[in-house]
């Protein structure tokens, strides 16, 4: 899997489509175990600079900190509320079929649940219970 460089990753974080040679990395980014954490960090690329600029506004420090806190909370709330849709849109823009990310994450969760169920049955079910 070829990983993009720092500049391409920054562009990707703000919505730029990567070249096709990075499709494996994009799919991994959208379906890995901690895909949601990666998503939040990518959204921070756009939110943190705005918050830094708002800290430079004139006024008392408490007012500026309140503005930054409120803006960051609203930005992260809406970013996270539409997280799956945004990731699916990004995958679609890279050329993947609709719901690819959801399907892959669901298959991984199903496999994990099957393993947990098998461990539970092996540990707590007696042979006579079947």
UniProtKB/TrEMBL annotation:
<keyword id="KW-0812">Transmembrane</keyword>
<feature type="transmembrane region" description="Helical">
    <location>
        <begin position="63"/>
        <end position="83"/>
    </location>
</feature>
<dbReference type="Pfam" id="PF17240">
    <property type="entry name" value="DUF5313"/>
</dbReference>
<feature type="transmembrane region" description="Helical">
    <location>
        <begin position="40"/>
        <end position="57"/>
    </location>
</feature>
<keyword id="KW-1133">Transmembrane helix</keyword>
<dbReference type="InterPro" id="IPR035197">
    <property type="entry name" value="DUF5313"/>
</dbReference>
<keyword id="KW-0472">Membrane</keyword>
<protein>
    <recommendedName>
        <fullName>DUF5313 domain-containing protein</fullName>
    </recommendedName>
</protein>
